[in-house]
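From the pipeline queue, job 12 of 40. The input is one protein chain; the requested action is below.

Action: predict structure.
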Amino acid sequence: MRPLRYSINVTLDGCCDHRVIIPDEELHRRAAESIARADALLFGRVTYELMEAGWRGPAPAGSRPAWMEPFARTIDAKKKYVVSGTLAGVDWNAELVRGELGEAVQLLKREPGQGLFTGGVKLPLALAELGLIDEYEFVVHPRIVGRGPTLFAGLSKLVDLKLVDRLEYASGAVAMRYEPRR
């Protein structure tokens, strides 16, 4: 069974709005490496549309720094599954996931491979409720925002985690990887 890994950038005060995270080369390189290790990406509609708008190739020349290109190429090429009840169709190497979320994700996890990768806010909340996330990675940035969306708002149960890895970035961000205690 392939694991489902969740990764998100977050500020010290819990804001997960991508517009307040300062991107840098090291962050993008590591994110590209993480995505490259996944067989496919699992997104909700909002994250899918955000990622497609930002990373679908080809990008106009000079529209982003050259150090972003490996990440862009990696995410552009990756197979994607999109959970949405409102989208009629998707492209960008994507397939819609319909039906009951738990059953659909369990089927994806049962396929052979190295794992699935997810991001975003609403879909991971639903996946955490169902106990389907096998690994959580929080990249905590040294910034206090005081506003914005936060993670797991409305979660109905506690999810106890154990730290399995930690990585410090030159920027002061810290990536902490956890697995659920079962």
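Job complete. The helical segments are 25-36, 45-55, 69-77, 101-110, 122-129.
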